[in-house]
Amino acid sequence: MLNRRQEQQSGMRTNPTLLRNRRAFILLLILSLGIFFFGAIHVVADTGWPNGGWMTHEDVKIEAYCIIDGDTGQVIMEHNADVRRANASTTKIMTALTLVNDKNYDPDRILHVSDHAVNLTDPNSARIKGLKGGDKIRTLDAMAALLIASANDVARVIAQNYGGYYGAIDPSNANDPELSQQSFAKNMNILAWELGLENTSFTNSAGFDERDQSHYTTARDLATITFEAMKHPQIAHIVGMQRYRLPPDENHKDPFWAPISNSNGLVAYGADLLDSQYFARYTGVKTGTTPQAGKCLVGSGVTHDGRKIICVALGIAIPEMYADNSMYGRAIPVRALMEEGARRLGCPAIERRVNFLAPTTVTTPTTPDDTPSNSEGKDPDQSNTSSPGTISTTPDSTSGNGVGVLASVRALPVVLQILMILGLLAVLFLIKWLIVSIVRNLKRGRRRRRR
After folding, report:
1. By residue range, what is the domain housing residue 302?
2. CATH number for the domain that contains residue 280
3. What is the block-wise mean pLDDT of the chain (451 residues), using blocks of 10 residues?
4. End residue of a domain, out of 324, 344, 364
5. Residues 6+ positions from 245 with CB-CB distance below 8 Å
6. N or C: which end of the chain has fewer CB within 10 A?
7. Would you say 158 and 128 are in contact if contact means Cβ atoms under 8 Å apart?
8. Is pTM beyond 0.90 here?
């Protein structure tokens, strides 16, 4: 009897402590789980759009866009497509088109770099670092720098040398780069008029804003410009390149004096990583950003059945979760529009299950007959075969998704990432604390029984 009373009294003394510990444990557990699942819910809520977690065309916030059939020019979808607005560096599509349509165009023509061309007032303006007055650059390399690196200095170099009053083409020996630059802008507008574009006016070859807003186009007109530009094989090839390097010359001995990379997220990430259902590959075209124009992207791609689609998006509202990654943030809304455009065009949808971590194999032909060759008239970029002795990039289609939870977590703001980590650590700590408490209580129970 005495032992039972002692146990009851001992239990009455420990009960309040246990009760307080339980309450504290429950509160901490709720708080920790709340922190952890808040981050997880943010991933699901913000990246968990319909269509397998990808943004749909209904979710995009773009001030003006126009999607066209890249084969026929027929408009598939549009929004504010005829509103005049600045278009930033997407202007360079027209610069390239004007260049290749010039009667004096020669891809091997050597261009002269003036001091005026490299004298950009904004230190953050896109340019080729190391390019200076007195340098020379081949026309085709200049077009690559224009369209891949979006180099504003090279945009001036092209305009000055093909404007007729400076450098490579200067029959009157005017030697006036600024006058030549203005002349090239007039040629851009003449070409726009010839294409029937009534809502386009360009004042410069780079796409700089004008205070009087006299440099403008529309989503529809820019779609037409892109449609015409992509007919030219050299332009179409360049805008689909991920990276390039300008070759060394007498003033630049280092082979890597000017490596350049594409800021177009569609091209940089590709159709596989962006988990496109309709597109076999993305083929271009150009980004652009200025205060007046906002974030812009002209995208293009080839569907699984070989259809071409062009999407012009001007004034893109970057999703909040991608605010620190403008390349990805532009690509996601344009991807959504292009997916819907392909669906409306009746293109077949193919579910991608790409395993990016599948081992690659070295493909070496045993006989000369094994070497793949392009059929006549076929774009080499459309070939799925690998060159001899190179790493095969054919994806394994057995398992895996294009973008996983890890990529979604990485896309979160840093604060939410930290909260998720703290929440996870807190949950692990509380689980450990609970296990230790249970073990202690078991030991105490054994001691009491022995007594």
Report:
1. 62-344
2. 3.40.710.10
3. 48 48 62 58 49 85 98 98 98 98 98 97 92 97 98 98 98 97 98 98 98 98 98 98 96 96 96 95 98 98 98 96 91 97 96 71 42 34 31 32 47 63 75 78 72 60
4. 344
5. 255, 256, 258, 259, 260
6. N
7. no
8. no
